[in-house]
């Protein structure tokens, strides 16, 4: 468990750190590094999304596992919800300061480019700093398991990972369920990540779109906790 959590936190830290470079006003190189950073973050993202079950099974007795798993998942979605608010707070809405041309695109002058580049860079640096603190805390103190197992099943030997993965990949029902879940989550996550752009043609601004995304995600997160009680 410790190795998995370190891998997830370390990958997220490296991913957020890559987005902080280069420091100068180089949009092309920044775009490449942002894509690389997001790719690394995406590769390790399944660990915290699925690791809540293992965390609950290792650290909590059986009568508390449903609730603890719900809290872990709610924490993940709460972070996603906050991103809808943090972005508009730290980075100004282009539509409020720049007039779109006939094609609906916003053309920035050099001064405006520097302003937005500075705001976006500051947001990336803040995120990298927070992930660095989190990674350091996990590295210094996150034991693999509690000193005493909270239940008999917590201390039992786990199934071999490679053997279990091989069985899952040959299980049609699992592949079907995973595909359905992955496609639905992927479409939803991709659409929400550009929510302000999707709603822009309806006259919805960046801040209002952020609040819509925040309320939608936070409602789902706390609904999970409520129904787990």
UniProtKB/TrEMBL annotation:
Alphabetically ordered keywords of this record: Membrane, Transmembrane, Transmembrane helix
Protein's recorded name: Disrupted in renal carcinoma 2 homolog
Topological type in the membrane: Multi-pass membrane protein
Gene3D superfamilies, per the entry: MFS general substrate transporter like domains (1.20.1250.20)
Chief localisation class: membrane
Species this protein is from: Paramuricea clavata (Red gorgonian)
A single GO molecular function term of this UniProt record: transmembrane transporter activity
Superkingdom: Eukaryota
GO CC annotations on file: membrane
Keyword presence, Transmembrane helix: yes
Subcellular location: Membrane
């Amino acid at each position: 468990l410790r190795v998995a959590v370190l891998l997830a936190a370390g990958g997220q830290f490296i991913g957020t750190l890559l987005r902080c470079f280069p420091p100068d006003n180089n949009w092309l190189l920044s775009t490449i590094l942002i894509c690389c950073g997001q790719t690394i973050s995406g590769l390790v993202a399944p660990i915290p999304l699925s690791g809540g079950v293992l965390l609950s099974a290792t650290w909590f007795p059986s009568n508390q596992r449903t609730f603890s798993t719900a809290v872990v998942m709610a924490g993940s979605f709460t972070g996603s919800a906050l991103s809808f608010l943090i972005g508009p707070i730290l980075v100004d809405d282009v539509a409020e300061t720049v007039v779109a041309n006939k094609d609906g695109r916003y053309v920035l002058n050099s001064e405006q480019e520097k302003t937005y580049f500075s705001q976006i860079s500051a947001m990336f640096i803040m995120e990298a700093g927070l992930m660095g603190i989190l990674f350091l805390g996990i590295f210094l103190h996150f034991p693999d398991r509690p000193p005493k197992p909270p239940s008999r099943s917590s201390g039992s030997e786990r199934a071999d990972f490679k053997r279990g993965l091989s069985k899952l990949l040959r299980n049609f029902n699992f592949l079907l369920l995973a595909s359905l879940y992955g496609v639905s989550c992927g479409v939803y996550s991709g659409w929400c990540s550009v929510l302000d752009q999707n709603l822009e043609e309806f006259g919805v601004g960046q801040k209002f779109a952020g609040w819509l995304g925040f309320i939608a995600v936070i409602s789902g997160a706390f609904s999970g906790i409520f129904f787990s009680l």
